[in-house]
Prior knowledge:
Helix content is 42%, strand content 8%. The protein is an alpha/beta fold. The protein folds into 2 domains: 3-351, Rossmann fold, CATH 3.40.50.970; 358-395. Strands 1-7-8-4-3-2 form a 6-stranded mixed β-sheet, sandwiched between helices. A two-stranded antiparallel sheet has the order 5-6. Bound molecules: thiamine diphosphate and magnesium ion.
Amino acid sequence: MAQDEARPGSGSTSGDHGSGPASGTVHPGAAHEGADELVQLIDPHGVRHADVRYDELVADVDGPALRRLYEDMVVVRRIDAEATALQRQGELALWPPLLGQEAAQIGSGRALRADDFVFSSYRENGVAYCRGVDLTDILRVWRGNASSGWDPYSINMATPQVIIGAQSLHATGYAMGIIHDGADSVAVAYFGDGATSQGDVNEAMVFAASYQAPVIFFCQNNHWAISEPVGLQAHVPIARRAPGFGIPSVRVDGNDVLACLAVTREALARARAGGGPTFIEAVTYRMGPHTTADDPTRYRDPNELEDWAARDPLARLAALLDSLGLLDADYADSVKAKADATAATLREGCLAMPEPAPSDVFRHVYSEPNSWLDRQQDHYERYLASFAQASQEGSR
Ligand SMILES: Cc1ncc(C[n+]2csc(CCOP(=O)(O)OP(=O)(O)O)c2C)c(N)n1
Ligand SMILES: [Mg+2]
């Protein structure tokens, strides 16, 4: 099956993942039949399906917990919309929207422990939210005010990696360090479908398998790498690649927050128990542009977007909550108010960010003084000062 045909709802949605490889988990060396199926616990209509294998992994997710996942997704979507608006208003240079990928990010992000460590790309603002990032920090780089956003150790999440796939090596190296420390935390690398064509991701998988490193490769297959459809670079489901490296993999409905939580918990438990890496392919869809500098109407069939809008991750959880009597008007209003208040905080933080001095660009390049850089800074400051001098002379 070509990648672009492999969508939630196109395979079995019976949810019976209890029997060997047909569970959706690809074991190294296993036959591929059934491996392309998606783990799905909540279907696009909001119907919860029983699952022999994964139900027990989310047995604690009761009504209030489902509501918390819903709130997270609503708030993260609102943050994303506000940041997109800030860019359109000229307050940010660029923004990479995550619209449509909320379930993949919240489901996996909420599975993690505080001492796990995340290495992400630029689109995982929903994961950063789960890690407890200060909202202003996610905007600093996009406003052009800083070279980096936050202290990675403050939330155990590295700042976003823009070099496609590089963070998979960082995560694997960190995970090898976890083994040396004798700890039971886990490193998680988030990357996209396009990143799986990068050497870095493939090299990371070789090392992760060789060292049985406690790392999760969490691939959000959002069907596009800028304007390249996933089917161009992956003629088979991406999850099939990992078993070739000796890494078990699973395909999950990336628009189903509960299923994403379940498969991530399973992978975390495997890693903590010394079982090594897992590759998760979360099949989702980038409903917005690649970034605010992109116009997807130039390369994307509008019908495709319409198909995926019908599988919206928030709408299906809302439908499930509604069927459980957990989405009354008062509650819906309170969630909206929380999302609006969060967006207001984001906007305030953005507008109140202090402008950096031009010479700040030289700070944080090296941890120790560097005479070569000091000389450059000196030249640059004299160059800037020459403008002030010239304007003074001109006004005389
Ligand atoms: C090493 C490298 N090559 C090329 C680019 C340019 N680039 C930026 S985003 C992107 C597409 C990435 O697609 P994917 O991995 O699917 O992630 P998504 O943007 O869909 O989340 C490319 C090629 C880059 N940043 N780094
Ligand atoms: Mg992609």
